[in-house]
Amino acid sequence: MELKRNKNCSDGYAWIDYLSLQFTQNVISETLRMANIVNAIWRKAIKDVDIKGYLIPKDWCVVASLTSVHLDGMNYEKPFEFDPWRWEKIEAGTRNNCFTPFGGGQRLCPGIELSRLELSIFLHHLVTTYRWVAEKDEIIYFPTVKMKRKLPISVTNLNH
C-alpha cells in the first residue's frame, strides 16, 4: 500500500519499485515452496553413478521429487504451514539447494526473474485494489499440487 500511495496515477512502476517489494518476494517463494507446479523431474543416468554409497546403474531412470524436498521437515521448520516470514531467515533463491522451483545449476530457468516480476506486479495490484475471502479448501499434493474445491473466493473492489 505504501508503494501505491507514493506513486501518482500517471507514474509507471520502475525496477527499483519491484526490488522494494521484499515481502512480496517472500510470499512468492513460500507459495512456490508449498505448491510448485513441477513436483518432480526425471533423469536418465548416462553412466554408472555413485551417490553416497548408492549405485545408480547406467540407463536407469531416476525421479527427483521436488515436492518432498520442499516439504521436508529437515529442510524447513513446520513445512506444511504457509509462512512467508521464514524467507527473512533463509536466503531465498539461487544459493539454497533445498529450494528448486526454477530448477538449478545448468538447468536453472532463464525466466526466473521475469516470472517473479510478473507475479509481483499481479500480487501488488491484487492486494492494493481488491479484497477477497476464500472458502475453506484443502491442498492436494499428488499427482500435482491443486486445491480440492478449486479454491472458491469472493472478490470485491476496494474503490467501490
UniProtKB/TrEMBL annotation:
It holds the Pfam family p450. It is a single-pass membrane protein. Gene3D superfamilies: Cytochrome P450. It is found in: Membrane. Keywords: Heme, Iron, Membrane, Metal-binding, Monooxygenase, Oxidoreductase, Transmembrane, Transmembrane helix. InterPro entries: Cyt_P450 (IPR001128), Cyt_P450_CS (IPR017972), Cyt_P450_E_grp-I (IPR002401), Cyt_P450_sf (IPR036396). One of its GO terms (cellular component) is membrane. Heme binds at C109. Its cofactor is heme. Its main location: membrane. One of its GO terms (biological process) is brassinosteroid homeostasis. GO terms for molecular function: heme binding; iron ion binding; oxidoreductase activity, acting on paired donors, with incorporation or reduction of molecular oxygen, NAD(P)H as one donor, and incorporation of one atom of oxygen. It comes from the Eukaryota. Belongs to the cytochrome P450 family. This is 3-epi-6-deoxocathasterone 23-monooxygenase. It comes from Trifolium subterraneum (Subterranean clover). The lineage of its organism: Eukaryota, Viridiplantae, Streptophyta, Embryophyta, Tracheophyta.
